Amino acid sequence: MTTKNIPLNKLDLWKGNVRKTKGADTSLAELAASIASIGLINPLTVIKGKNGRFDVIAGGRRLKALQILAKTKKVKADHDVACNIEDEENAIEVSLAENAIREDMHPADQFDAFKKLADSGLPAADIAAKFGSTEAHVSKLLKLANVAPVIIKAYRDGEINLEIVMAFAVTDDQAEQLKVWKAGSKHRYSGDVRRALTEKEITAGDRRVRVVGLKAYEKAGGKTRADLFTEGEDGIFLLDANLLNDLFNKKLESTVAKVTAEGWKWVELREKFEHGKFRQLEEEYKPLPAKEQKKLDELQKQTDALDDSEEDDAWDKQREIEDKIDAILETREPIVTEKTLAMSGAVVYVDYNGKVQIERALVRPEDEKKQKAKSKTETGKAEDEPSGLSAKLVENLTQHRTAALAAELMKDAKVGLASVAYALAADVFFNRPAETCINISNRTHSLSSVEGSPAEVAISAQEKSWKKVLPSEPEKLWRWCLGQPTETLIELLTACAALSVDAVVKKRSYMDGNTSMAHADLLAEALNLDMTRWFTPTAENYFNHVSKAQIVDDLQQINELAGNPASVGKGALLDANKTSKAECAAFAERKAKDSDWLPELLRSPNTSTKLKKAA
Q: Residue 347: which of 460, 245, 449, 445 has the closest Cα?
């Protein structure tokens, strides 16, 4: 008997197989996944057929699994398959032994066998040559053999699958493996395991790596290690965080220098940007030319006249006019005044996709405090504080709500399917886009200001999980979808709906009214959204951005929710007239921490009812 590699498309099932009665094989998909992950453990046994082809007399299930992988483009049609070539006269005996006597070796037995060979001093390349395999295949098996014995035993006993064992193999530290194993239940997911074992590590997908470049990091002497079971940038880990940070900072020094030259009061380089730490000044523009301003005024009159129109196409006409208005506004030339440069600065940072971004006209809390003190000294009174919430704060708060809606919707397939059906059916059957916060056609909004929040982290984890499941190329998506069970397609639709949620209220829609907010409220009701799980008001993300009078009102409501409606401003809790804005905000943050209170924009109907009763 000789062993050689034979192209997959030259292998056929032998018609003389002794097993004639065949039941449904429900584990072929699992076998195919195993072969795709760690390769073919046992070679096929073949005899020579006609016209240069070969008949498989032992290993029919493995052949079918390989054919599934070829059909789904996971291996090439002519993929080399390790085969033992048997004499034709022995075919019946081999087939009988395969089906009646021989029991397939469990993959874990193969792990152990290869480990013993490696422990005896045999290199992986020699083991591969000895068994007609590849060195990469042997390296994967040796990696799996290093998983803690208690986890391997659970795999042998059928408590977990091979995918979970591969997730534990992301680290060689068995103590860490056992820590995660003991912390979880027996019904764990591979993604959860891998995240728990690598949460403190830097992958090649990190925004800093995308700016620096993996090759530049390695050229500078940076070391990496690879997860043999994860393809792409998520499977490469960088081991020198200090070197990466040095290279990252040097890469951005030129950008910082250019922004500094613009004349800002200060310029900072940050790993990421947190909107809540600054107040951003409204952008200023040069006046439009008289002709353009006249055209803008006329268009505004036209769209105002359509507000109360009952014509069937009024909505479409209004959208067309608004597009023209936006086009004119986009032609305005922005300006930066000397006053703006003197009181604000800029932050240079890198977004999630690894692109360098610049946020300008940012006012730090300490500068705002100094400015008000200076104003009070010069005029004898502090500048008037704005009442209510600014458009920027409204946008930031509703970004938190949008992220929370998306995170909750990810978990509810029924509401997700209803959301997609509603968004599409309104357009298809009523010839009118639905007033919905589900932007199902495309994800056009950004949640940059809530990056790192619990809801945004949950969304990103789900998005990454789906990207690993879906084909790498859009051209393959249709066939992939056709091959999925209904349950998977419903889950995918739900994920699409969740990632398309846009309930952010931007400045213009805040001023003119926002039709999608009504549907956002209905969606929140269907999901039983509790924003206290996703957002806690702090000085940084809320109280620093409202007036002192608003803080006092908010504190009154916090007390009412706690069943203590005592007046806030009479000394018992806070004397606003003798306390600075920053101290008021810090005090309010401490009080809100132990309360279920939220800004009105984020409240559920239940919270609003409680406040009304208390009032």
A: 449
Check whether 387 has a pLDDT greater than 50.
no
Q: Looking at residue 9, what is its pLDDT?
A: 93
Q: Which amino acid is present at 137? A: H
DSSP codes joined into one string, 289-302? PHHHHHHHHHHHHH
User: Of 387, 397, 391, 368, which Cα lies nearest the Cα of 547?
Assistant: 387
380-406 burial, b at 16+ Cβ within 10 Å, e below that, comes to: eeeeeeeeebbebbbbbbbbbbbbbbb
**Same-domain pairing of 508 and 567:** no
pLDDT tens-digit map of 397-413: 888 888 888 888 778 77
For residue 394, is pLDDT > 60?
A: yes
Number of structural domains the chain divides into: 5
Q: List beta partners, residue 350.
A: 356
Question: What residues have CB less than 8 Å from 271, skipping those under 6 apart?
Answer: 207, 208, 248, 349, 350
Distances (CA, A) of 80 to 4, 126, 132, 247: 9, 19, 11, 43
Longest dimension (CA), the chain: 109
Q: Quick one: 509 and 399 in the same domain?
A: yes
Q: Are 582 and 615 in contact (CB under 8 A)?
A: no
For the segment 271-275, the average pLDDT, to the nearest whole number, is 75
- State the Cα angle at 514 between 510 and 516, rounded to 5°: 140
Flag the least confident range among 112-116, 329-333, 436-440, 490-494. Answer: 436-440
Identify whether residues 407 and 512 lie together within a single domain: yes
Which residues fall within 8 angstroms of residue 379, CB to CB, at 6 or more apart? none
Per-residue pLDDT at 68 exceeds 70 = yes
- Regarding whether 234 and 159 lie in a shared domain, the answer is yes
Question: Where does residue 519 fall: left (phi above 0), alpha (psi -120 to 50 degrees), or beta otherwise?
Answer: alpha
What would the pLDDT profile of 517-561 be if each residue is shown by its tens digit?
677 788 888 888 888 888 889 888 888 888 777 888 888 888 877
Helix (H), strand (E), coil (C) string for 430-499: HCCCCCCCECCCCCCCCCHHHCCCHHHHHHHHHHHHHHHHCCCCHHHHHHHHHCCCHHHHHHHHHHHHHH
pLDDT of amino acid 474 = 65
Q: 606: domain range?
A: 543-614
Question: Would residue 373 count as lying in a domain?
Answer: no
Flag whether 277 is in a domain: no
199/327 same-domain check: no
pLDDT, position 509: 44
In a domain, 206, yes or no: yes
Neighbours of 525 (CB within 10 A): 11
Q: What is the pLDDT of residues 79-111, one digit of tens each?
A: 999 888 888 777 766 765 665 445 556 778 878
To the nearest 10 degrees (0 to 180), the angle between helices 391-409 and 486-499 is 170
In a domain, 586, yes or no: yes
